[in-house]
C-alpha cells in the first residue's frame, strides 16, 4: 500500500530485500497478538520496524541507534514534519533545475553548511536542527552511493554522486513515517541501554541488527558511527543476547554468514550455542577467490521456539 511507512533514508545494511524472508522467522506470538512491545537497538534505515508496525499493533515501541545524525532525523520527522517538508521542497525543486556542474557546486555548498551546523549540534550549541536534518536528507540522497562517512574531525566527507533528477524526498512517504513514529520512544544511546524497556509481562520482541562481522574476502561495512564494531564487540553482543534470553524476551538477530568464505568458521555456532541459527539469501554478490562470484547468505539467530 502506498500509505505504508517505509525507510526515508539510504542506509548501509538495509533489510528491505529480506522482509519477505523474515516473515518466516518472526515469533508466532507476534502473529497471535501476544507480543505487546517492540524494541530495536540498532535501527539504521528502519525497514524491519516499518514493516512490522504496518501489520501488528504494539503498546510500546522503542527505537535506538548510536548514530546521532540518524536519530535526530527520526526525531525531526516525528515532531517537526511540516517545517521539514517546507525546507525540503525548495531544495529539491531548485537542485533539479540545475545542470550537472551547478548541482555539484550546490552539493558541496550544502555539505559545508551542514558540517558547520553539525559542529554546533555536536557541541550542544544553539543550532538549526530541522534545517540541518533537511540538509542531511539532501546529502543522503545525492552523495556517492548514499554512504554515511565522517572524517577524523567528525565532518561528513562523502563526495557528490552522479544522479539525474534525484528524488530528494517523498512527501507522502515522510508523512507516513511521521504517522508511524507517533508515540514511539526514540533513543540515541549504547544499544545495551534499551534493556530497561524489556518487560516480560508485555512480551517484548527485539530485532537486533548490529554492524555485521566482516567476511574475510569481502569489503564489509562495520562502522556507521565514530566507533568501530570489532570482534570483541561481537562477543559482547552475544553475551547480551544470552542475558536478554534469560530475561524472557523474544530475540531475533541478523549477522553475516562466515561460511560464505570460510566453511570452517564456527564463530556464531560457538557464541550462540543453544540458539536456533538459520540462513536467508542476501541477494548480494561476493567475490570469493575460491568460488568466484556468487550470491551469499546471511544468518538469522533466534531464541524461539523454546
From TrEMBL:
Pfam families: MethyltransfD12. It is an enzyme of class 2 (transferase). Keywords: Methyltransferase, S-adenosyl-L-methionine, Transferase. Its EC number is 2.1.1.72. The keyword S-adenosyl-L-methionine applies. InterPro entries: Ade_MeTrfase_dom_2, M_m6A_EcoRV, MeTrfase_D12, SAM-dependent_MTases_sf. GO terms for molecular function: S-adenosyl-L-methionine binding; sequence-specific DNA binding; site-specific DNA-methyltransferase (adenine-specific) activity. It catalyses: a 2'-deoxyadenosine in DNA + S-adenosyl-L-methionine = an N(6)-methyl-2'-deoxyadenosine in DNA + S-adenosyl-L-homocysteine + H(+). One of its GO terms (biological process) is methylation. It comes from the Archaea. The keyword Disulfide bond does not apply. NCBIfam families: dam. Belongs to the N(4)/N(6)-methyltransferase family. This is site-specific DNA-methyltransferase (adenine-specific). It comes from Methanococcus maripaludis (strain C5 / ATCC BAA-1333). The lineage of its organism: Archaea, Methanobacteriati, Methanobacteriota, Methanomada group, Methanococci.
